[in-house]
Amino acid sequence: MAKNTNIRISLPAVCFVWQIAMIILFGVFVRYNEESDTRWIEHRRRKNISTNLENDFYYRYPSFQDVHVMIFVGFGFLMTFLKRYSFGGVGFNFLIAAFGIQWALLMQGWFHYLDDDGKIKIGVENLINADFCVAGCLIAYGACLGKVSPVQLMVLTLFGVTLFAVEEYIILELLHAKDPGGSMVIHTFGAYYGLTISWVLYRPMLSQSKHLQGSVYHSDVFAMIGTLFLWMYWPSFNSAIADHGDGQHRAVINTYLALAASVLTTFAISSISQKHGKLDMVHIQNATLAGGVAMGTASEFMITPYGSLIVGFCSSIISTFGYIFLTPFMEKTLKIQDTCGIHNLHAMPGVIGGIVGAITAASASESVYGQEGLINTFDFKEGGYQAAGLFVAIAFGLVGGALVGGILKLPIWGDPADANCFDDEVYWEVPEDEDENMLSSHPNMNHARGMPDA
Amino acid sequence: MAKNTNIRISLPAVCFVWQIAMIILFGVFVRYNEESDTRWIEHRRRKNISTNLENDFYYRYPSFQDVHVMIFVGFGFLMTFLKRYSFGGVGFNFLIAAFGIQWALLMQGWFHYLDDDGKIKIGVENLINADFCVAGCLIAYGACLGKVSPVQLMVLTLFGVTLFAVEEYIILELLHAKDPGGSMVIHTFGAYYGLTISWVLYRPMLSQSKHLQGSVYHSDVFAMIGTLFLWMYWPSFNSAIADHGDGQHRAVINTYLALAASVLTTFAISSISQKHGKLDMVHIQNATLAGGVAMGTASEFMITPYGSLIVGFCSSIISTFGYIFLTPFMEKTLKIQDTCGIHNLHAMPGVIGGIVGAITAASASESVYGQEGLINTFDFKEGGYQAAGLFVAIAFGLVGGALVGGILKLPIWGDPADANCFDDEVYWEVPEDEDENMLSSHPNMNHARGMPDA
Amino acid sequence: MAKNTNIRISLPAVCFVWQIAMIILFGVFVRYNEESDTRWIEHRRRKNISTNLENDFYYRYPSFQDVHVMIFVGFGFLMTFLKRYSFGGVGFNFLIAAFGIQWALLMQGWFHYLDDDGKIKIGVENLINADFCVAGCLIAYGACLGKVSPVQLMVLTLFGVTLFAVEEYIILELLHAKDPGGSMVIHTFGAYYGLTISWVLYRPMLSQSKHLQGSVYHSDVFAMIGTLFLWMYWPSFNSAIADHGDGQHRAVINTYLALAASVLTTFAISSISQKHGKLDMVHIQNATLAGGVAMGTASEFMITPYGSLIVGFCSSIISTFGYIFLTPFMEKTLKIQDTCGIHNLHAMPGVIGGIVGAITAASASESVYGQEGLINTFDFKEGGYQAAGLFVAIAFGLVGGALVGGILKLPIWGDPADANCFDDEVYWEVPEDEDENMLSSHPNMNHARGMPDA
């Protein structure tokens, strides 16, 4: 059945209306904070701050830029692996991230940064948090990749950011849980949010676009760009909003080590699981990152270097096995079609990260942290609260995903027919002579062009 | 008509002579400044500077590296979109940028950094300014992409950098205008410089290479690498040489927001302008960056967060419409062949940026900036001088472009015939073509697959 | 002859055993140092350090991330140039680097960072040094690219890191030589280590896989990603562990200038050496980096800006000529098959760097450096020790390479048959249909190739 995928009205309408709404809301609510305002110089004198370097900008900006690259190039290129959905992978990632960061600045601002004068005062830390918030929605996109319209993605992001800000408020502010790298708040929530949406939007006839679900040689190389920038900059991700000084320093070391261990275990499991021991690019592109996800909650803790290696070691074993056994099982039995396998890369490692965080926090002692160190790292001993935070993240993902999935099921969003999934032809002007190139893999390309809407 | 495109003598000659000239001139003029010299430690004590961190290196280096990536990967890959000119796009960008930064260190040095002893004293800020200076020439290259020889590009760069240093001196030193991100000095000048050259070098029979003027699927994905690194690092571009402390901090926030708004409006206009609402990669690759260009002059000002969103919103609408209507019109009517559409990405948003800067400066008040803040941000109230700066930039672009265009029209530079434009075959040893390769490797792959172990 | 390349047992075994060994050894030996430990706050008070910014993290982290990108994206993508070995190029680079950094933290820790309590205390500087150490092995991989199994690469890395730590200890600790960017310690050692291994593993019948030894159009563009990230971030590489303040600042300037000069000379030699003056991507991808290699030892010295230009100028001439004349000669006469031409990019420029360092150190004078500057830069005047260091690096490369080559010659490592070298099919699940995809940009490319000038 050919669906109407013409988004000529709906996409521009959504983009314009929401962008104008952002402008108005920013006009009413958002201002510079005292470190990004010209009055900083007076602030410095008042607070008796000796140097401009004490401006938080110099503590956070390099990490912010690394996180920024992860969001746009990392997530974007990781989703270019499909043979004919690279435009959609990197392009729609670009669109929803650019919208999401604006909405996140407002939502997180209202919950965390509201000043006495009713204004949201922003600085570089807000930009990092906005990128973090958007990451949850990009993870969710991974489950839906190739099966939804850009309009649906804008809706997914609008609600995703909203839900994120609320669960983040509950977990960090009310439960006083720690989650600097967002194993719970970002990865667990984002993954269950996306998986539930994908479950609601289940497509029984998706096999009609089976010929487009694989990769080609060069699209796999493009995806490695995403993988590597995520892998390299993950230490910045887990340390970007950690405490100044030893906090950021330690978070980097822990994440760096966890990721290093992930690579070896991923290669091992990938090889042992294949006939003839050949490596599978899907595993290398994804499971090598599991250690970063799993270190998100405990990154700042005194988990010790070898503890970090163990976290990376275990999470990647589980993640790789997930790609081999769980993904097919989930599609067949649970009716969850998870294009990028986010359950293996974000859900399971995220839950592991939450548990690791809870255990490490519960077992934190003054002998290890030192008296002041213990106070700085934890507001108070909080193993139980950490665990509670994990459940909040899962709950928000499942319930939120069900609601939003229901909304996205409405037949008004211009999503593609089962036969046209994973195909850039539906939403993009694809250069002509390449489809001839692709002809072999594309009996349906012409069909796509012959569709009522195309 | 087949032209002689053999550059075996001319290109090496130019590269050698100019590189040796650089070595001699650096020997005569260029030295380390007190922050990069071993005497820094004495300087520190004299100036009573408490820590090595006060060395400007630590304020500027992370931003410098981001700018450096924009120049070589950003501009370079943005120009790989043509189906058979990716080598020339990224390769010649590499060549002229590497020459340009050397010449820029000298030219800018003579105008801005000449010490009492007649030496140019350089530090990290000079490296940033050299990258900025080169950006103007890379923008100009965008208009000529695929139609000029590398020798012509070296000439374009030699004069481009020279002109840049002079107009920059007039605008910043004589007119005391502010332009930290170079909306006027870099983008407006560079764009009109390149467009005028392209107009002088008009090729009536260019349609003979029409079959090579498009992109292919993967070349569009390569171009997205350029787009994203430009987009992500633009906040560093507009803040790299801004004032320490709140200046850099605010420039980052303003640019980040303008760019975010640009993405939504670009997607909206791109979709609404196409039959069936399909998105055009040309727009996504370029117009999403207009906000960064337009925020170059006012980046440091108290333009407010929503003001930044408005700047990005408007500049991308104009930029995208430019690609749809203006580029074809300019080619047909004005005889300006603008390969990358720099008029839409740099000229118009650059002018907008200049105007925005003038208005913001004119309306700057002590109530908003604070007494000291006003003094720090502006040497004095300068709306009119800002506007004057814009005209200087345009004038230098037009006049300089006409002169250099005339020089480049001489039949001695080895430029390609109309039928051979946009073709790497002319200046590069291109690997025996892809398909034969793939074919030849084909049997052997089967063989590989048929091997006992495989 | 078809060999057994099934690594389904050996690769997972090696990965698991070594990763578990790492976990145990880290558990016994590795701890946080006082700057990454929660007791940092107490340390700060004791040492009377005024701000968290004095934590070495803020001096080193941005440079570390740049180096990290060079190791994984730079080296990785530089090795994607082969038409059918991109997975192996970037993938195996990823595997051995991730293992190598763990082993390097231990080996370098035992030699340099062992605390009184018998523990290795790590911080960000250790992470940088681990990346440096691994670089030596990745250089060696370049000589063997496409001809060895991942298991052999793991062995190459295990011994390579071990040898590196010892020679580094001798050169830096015993000889008190300076080598912040590793011209000797990293590049010279790594190159001769790899070349000797490649010589021991000489394959007389390698021509059987000749059809896979070239690049294709897009694989050359992928390789440019590696080239550019190496080129752009090399100033960070040579300054990452330089002295705080002017040391890092000067190292950046010197490297930046040397690299700029390298580009022009590489283009010149490449063009002049080819019939019709066409440029060769192999030269552009590699020889443009020679200046960074050659500036590794003297990066911190007062070599002067024009001195840096001269270093880049000369090293790239030699490097490019190496690709043109030496590589074929070495393969034919010396029986050394150097896939990536590391002899031209790392061995010769590395030796040049060592010599430049020795001369600059020998001629260092108080008049140039200032009294304190001279003491800070050199522990003592050390021209002769620098030269000695160079010989140590070469000796370790040759002897170590011979030993390890002998081990790798054993018929147990699953290396490919001569006919299957440079083919991802051997160790990777390669997507089926790429060649068919490519079938049809063919006609138009023929047309392009049929043009008078090509």
What does this molecule look like?
3 copies of one chain form a homotrimer. The first copy, chain A, is mainly α. Chain A is built from 18 helices and 2 strands. Chain A has helices at residues 10-29, 40-47, 56-78, 86-112, 124-144, 150-174, 183-200, 217-239, 246-273, 281-286, 290-294, 305-332, 342-362, 366-369, 371-377, 383-409, 432-438, 443-450, and strands at 30-32, 120-122. In chain A, strands 1-2 form a two-stranded parallel sheet. The longest helix of chain A has 28 residues, at 246-273. The model of chain A is unreliable at 434-454 (pLDDT under 50). At the B-C interface, helix 1, strand 1, helix 2, helix 3 and helix 4 of B face helix 3, helix 8, helix 9, helix 12 and helix 15 of C.
Measured by residues with Cβ under 8 Å of the partner chain's Cβ, the largest interface is: B-C, 102 and 104 residues
The major sheet of chain A is characterized as:
2 strands, parallel
- What oligomeric arrangement do these chains adopt? homotrimer
Q: Radius of gyration of chain A over alpha carbons?
A: 22 Å
Strand content of chain A: under 5%
Distance between the termini of chain A: 14 Å
Summarize the helix and strand pattern of chain A as letters. Answer: HEHHHEHHHHHHHHHHHHHH
GO molecular function (chains A, B, C): ammonium channel activity
InterPro entries (chains A, B, C): Ammonium/urea_transptr (IPR029020), NH4_transpt_AmtB-like_dom (IPR024041), RhesusRHD (IPR002229)
Subcellular location (chains A, B, C): Cell membrane
Family (chains A, B, C): Belongs to the ammonium transporter (TC 2.A.49) family. Rh subfamily.
